[in-house]
Amino acid sequence: MKNLIVSPAPHAHSGDSVRKNMLLVIGALLPAYAVSVAAFGWGALITAAISVAACVLFEWLIAKFLLKEQPTIGDCSAILTGLLLAFNLPCNLPWWIVIIGALVAIGVGKMTFGGLGQNPFNPALVGRVFLLISFPVQMTTWPRPLGFATSYVDAATGATPLATLKQIVKGGDTGLIDQLPDLWSTFVGYMGGSLGEVCALALLAGGLFLICTKVITWHIPVSILATMALFAWIACPEGMCPGQYIGLTLCTGGAMLGAFFMATDYVTSPMVGWGKIIFGVGIGVIVMVIRTWGAYPEGMSFAILIMNACVPLLNRIRPKRFGEKKQ
Amino acid sequence: MNLVVISLLILGVTGLVAAVLLYMVAQKFKVEEDPRIDEVQAVLPGANCGGCGFAGCRALAEACVKADTLDGLLCPVGGAPTMTKVGEILGLAAVTAEPKVAVVRCNGVCEARPRTSEYDGVKSCQILNSLYVGETACPFGCLGCGDCVAACQFGALSMDPVTGLPQVDEEKCTSCGKCVKACPRGIIELRKKGPKGRRMVVECVNKDKGAVARKACLNACIGCGKCQKECQFEAITVENNLAYIDPEKCRLCRKCEEACPTGAIHAVNFPARKPKVEEPKKEEATV
Amino acid sequence: MTTFKIGGVHPHDNKSYSAHQPITECPLPAKAIIPLIQHIGAPAQAVVEKGQQVKVGELLAKAGGFVSANIVSPVSGTVTKIDSTIDAWGMKMPAIFMDVEGDEWLETIDRTPDIVTECNLEPKEIVDRIAAAGIVGLGGACFPTQVKLLPPPGKKAEVLVVNGVECEPYLTCDHQLMLEHGEEIMIGIKILMRALGINRAVIGIERNKPDAIARMQELAAQVPGVEVKALKLKYPQGGEKQLIDACIGRQVPSGALPIEVGAVVDNVATIFAVYEAVQKNKPLISRVMTVTGKSLSKPGNYLVRFGTPLSDVVALAGGVPEDTGKIIGGGPMMGRAMNNIDMPANKRTSGLLFLPEKESRRQQPENCIRCGKCVSACPMGLEPYLLSKQAELAMWDEMEKHDVMDCIDCGCCLFTCPSHRPLLDYIRMGKGKVGGIIRARQAAAKAAAEAAKK
Prior knowledge:
Shape of chain A: globular
Distance between the termini of chain B: 80 Å
CATH topology of the largest domain in chain B: Alpha-Beta Plaits
Mean pLDDT of chain B: 86
Largest sheet of chain B: 2 strands, antiparallel
Helix content of chain A: 55-70%
Low-confidence stretches of chain B: 279-287
Helix content of chain B: 25-40%
Largest sheet of chain A: none
Structural class of chain B: alpha+beta
Low-confidence stretches of chain A: none
Number of domains of chain B: 2
Oligomer: heterotrimer
Number of domains of chain A: 2
Number of strands of chain B: 9
Mean pLDDT of chain A: 88
Radius of gyration of chain A: 21 Å
Radius of gyration of chain B: 27 Å
Strand order of the largest sheet of chain B: 1-5
Structural class of chain A: mainly alpha
Order of helices and strands of chain A: EHHHHHHHHHHHHHH
Shape of chain B: elongated
Order of helices and strands of chain B: HHHHEEHHEEHEEHHEEHEH
Number of strands of chain A: 1
Number of helices of chain B: 11
Distance between the termini of chain A: 58 Å
């Protein structure tokens, strides 16, 4: 008989793996990506391809030549980072800016801390915010989602609904209310903005798929969206129907993308239920504060990054123990 | 102009007040410390390994300054030269201790000790030891997961892939004793380095009866007592089927090595014998 | 449908290989080895000598303390030596070696197949008979049963919780026992209720055994106070604390025993042994074990006399399959992989599981991605990712603060970890260390208190 293998219990495994989780998230992003391609055309394809390729390449290069360890690109996390970064960029962004974004996301956001699992901030958002501050003009010039376009750079650009909303809320320009899209089209329609945030419906479907496959739990998305809705209801600008304002708040900009895909990133979100809810509420409040009073029309990236910094603190919240006495 | 003067004045006065305050506070809360502590600490290696039995180099320095004699205070890393320097600073006579070195008392190399199972858990001797006998049948021998290697701060230990046993680099070993504590089976011993690094060691800790020990490992000490009879200096004792050579009494005559039927006794760092060159690989493994 | 409230996982149950296989008796061995440690607590003290003739049912070794159990001869023959043998993990253990001669039983043992229903013994007599028979918890922990029946002063038992859950994947011995000996188990429950002076018992059975639930419900209908609870499938439902939570909705506080909430838990196999000991005067000399595996030719449930080498049992089940990589004593979640099968069957061996080589190896661990899945899986509400890191860094005080002593070794954390991190390996080691520190502290406090008295 061959020598037997011994190891401590348990001897069974659920079959779950990092790679599987990453692939499921990538899968959940695909419907939204399909809509983006339909809306933007070549720009969406090229930007995403550059971003994914650059992220994977940088991770491989850094692991191989700087850290001198076995590259871990097999776990597909770099692909996901690249895809999420692309989702947060305007689709006509010059290719070299995308590559800089990928370098910052992987190099600064992830590998400097020791790779997957060690980074305190969401890498894709680190990349995006770096670009937003470094290239404010290019990063806020949004092409209009007019259908499949074959040109990459020369897309027609225009204001996003959020920018219009900002003028109404902050500038008190109530005359612009008529220019806002109606509720239904904000939900299913082509909304101008970053590559990935065109269709709230597709993002919501992807998010629900992730909850159903138990890749993420409901805590973070629900608490973010509920907080944002509640805030919008209370702070509804005069002359606007609260329903429309809530709808616009949740369906435009990075709300869906952030709530389901960015904030729920395993590494940079809390572990325990209550921590996750506080995390989500914090993001919701910060987003709405930035949207209402801040300089930028959208604040999802900043909100998530700020709350990422609170995660070590939120992780001190302990789960409910078995047989714990009520106090 | 006026504005500039006022600003300068305000800043200057604030700075002055702050400086005075800081000075007063520093005077008030000054901790009187023997300056020699810093001096002593400066000559210590600064590895903070804890091998001296204190929390770190600073703690040892404090203990040295406080003590009347350096007896019992020894930095195993720096050894005698460091302690002499410490003695010079404090005006005390350094107590010289024999230099020691970590010795792995197991020679269960792969060929001698057949593997009976394959361990697939965490590479940790401590965990393996708490659950299983190890990958071989010997319940005393080296488990080969390298807890000692991980514990060594000086890079003196490494796993030999051929023998599956840890190797001690005598140049780097500072005899701090971390590996001794890390080994769950108590295989590693700090022994006197000996003249020119020469010493006799029983490289086995198996306390089983001869036949059982031999079945588990061809290189095991079977407690036959032949070495004890051979030794003219009463340096060898056999207890619980295991021989032990007392380094204080051993005169390095190498008779026990010849007498040992299993080759458990090793002469380390001796020049190779002329008539038969006995397995030079084993020598390497012990160095 | 009820189940326990915190955590838990859903491993594939894999019970089909040996489920509904009738209990088959394993032939007697030529030589038997009876280990002196077959339970939690002090080793038993041998009371026989070399060369002595013994019959089945004669005392071989008596309990070595309050928490300890008698060991009764499972075979008849001559004691050849009292020496040490190697257990399934390669460690030494003391044992009595016997040459088996015939199969002669003590006359006092009732070997007829008749079921004895009536029991009019006093509680004290029942407990004495259980202690004399050397009965221990056959669910896996092997805690001496008589100790559980003597609640410490100030505590009162209220409910008997019967463990028919068998939440470990692959194992089917308790299931089969309930199907074949349900009636005896029901009498055993009545005996234990009598011994404890209580009138309520809850039998917990998981939904994947509908025939056992139906059978036990049918029998329970005739006994007042006994109730069968069908439980939702979830591992580790058979854990003592989880089972009490699932069956009667009470949570045993951290560090306390089930008696704190008035519960006494016993496994169905233990209760069957109680029936045999009290009603038939037959001590614990054998147990049903599941021998199973995907490639095994005759997986099934075997009645094995203690002392029989496990290799004999394996031979009966068709021999070790060619592709075996790992043999596990018990189930895949909490069972221990064995490095040989020469060990004799004893009270602890609830099953033998043969895993093919491709399922035997762990996957390479990756970085922790802080997904928190271990936290939601932990049935005790602990944070395994944190405890494991603390153990790696030898932070024993921190581990104690984070309640590592509550860990029940169930393995849910490691089972669920997508990064395949060896969480439980480290936590188990840390638990051992912290336990040692706590015991040392208690001993020191006790010594100090005694010194103060003087």
